[in-house]
Design goal:
The chain is globular and about 35 Å long. It has a six-stranded mixed β-sheet with strand order 1-2-3-4-6-5, covered by helices on one side. Helix content is about 30%, strand content about 30%.
Amino acid sequence: MRQYLGGPIPWRQRVSQFRRYLRGHPNVGIWVVRPSKQAKAVGLILLSPHKDGVYYEVSYEFLPSSWGQGFASEAVMRVIEHALSDLGMQKVIAETQAANAASCRLLVRLGFREEQQLERFGAQQKIFAKSWQA
């Protein structure tokens, strides 16, 4: 699941990261994705400041067992709509490894445009953007 996110997180770091998620942060939105009528969560979506310091970035992780069922499409789109409409953001970006073809396809399907390619984290990255439409 974290193949394109730097690999698995060591157990000790998972606990502290989860505690940070629970505490929340005024500039970060965190959503747990759970299909209706299911107790088990299938994914996590974050909306947080991007490394560029200008825009907010949407990022997501979904369990492999949930891939191909539309959960990511629906949930990520709702977070993007919230950011652009409710929060008044003019633009939201997403950064993913160029090798992550499924994520690139998802972003294009959701209306994102590829804006930039760069080397970061030891891999080729693509930065996609979706802007508010009047």
